[in-house]
Amino acid sequence: MANLNRRDQGRYRCQVNNVAGGPAASQEAQLTVNYGIKIFLNPQPKSRIEGGSVTFTCEVEGKPPPEVTWLKDGNLFTIEAIRMKVTQPTVHHRTPVSLTINELIRTDEGSYNCRVNNFLDERTSTPAFLAVYYSPVIFQNPLNLTKREGDSMVMSCGVDGNPVPEVTWKKDVVTLVHGDRINITKPSSVGRVYSTLTISNLVVGDKGTYKCMVNNTLNAVVSIPGSLTIISLDLWFVNPETNFTVTAGQNVTLVCEVWGVSPDITWYRDGKSMEAT
């Protein structure tokens, strides 16, 4: 028998007879035909919410019954007994095998495929991607800033979430949009990323509180606000109290409140400048 295939498998015996008698039959001999691996069904892409469960399935055949291992991102996947379960084929014909992961965490996200082998052959399925979705969080709030009029300011909001969160910025109760002086960058990838708010050529009216609002399909969160204080380039002051009456020998303190950038203050008495003594 040449070029054996699996249909040749079976029990064989010979039967003999001649003119003197018969027939006489030999004992049966079992012919087992081993064959390599075939993968009929590859695992399919999945998306799940953190804390849920997922099952990947391959359908395989091979004789002797193959051994199945699982890969994650191209590397041998370590099975955690508490959260995970795998099944192995116990027959040689087409049969499903599976990997189940419970209590999903975000680091479970990645590409999974099954590797199937017996002593004749080894095959690997095409990979299937698992997306693990989770609610957005803010890991860095905007900081309080003090800037001079005419300067630029940058506030950052550190966010994480899957699907990629949408970020909007508000000043007090007003939603900010791109403009001549305002630039907003938004996250474009999953993981710990930043959204920044940049305002150039600051004016006194930019003073206020700023916050970022973050949302995806699972939830929405709002940052702790950061305040922006603007130091005006103009000088503003409050006159000291108009009149004082004191007794000779007493001390007196006059107060002049001033706002501005590095003001130069000079006191005058009866129209003449005074120097400290």
From TrEMBL:
Protein name: Peroxidasin homolog
Segments traversing the membrane: none
InterPro entries: Ig-like_dom, Ig-like_dom_sf, Ig-like_fold, Ig_I-set, Ig_sub, Ig_sub2, Neural/epithelial_adhesion
Entry keywords, A to Z: Disulfide bond, Immunoglobulin domain, Repeat, Signal
All residue ranges annotated as the Ig-like domain in the record: 23-131, 136-223, 225-277
Entries under Pfam families matching the protein: I-set, Ig_3
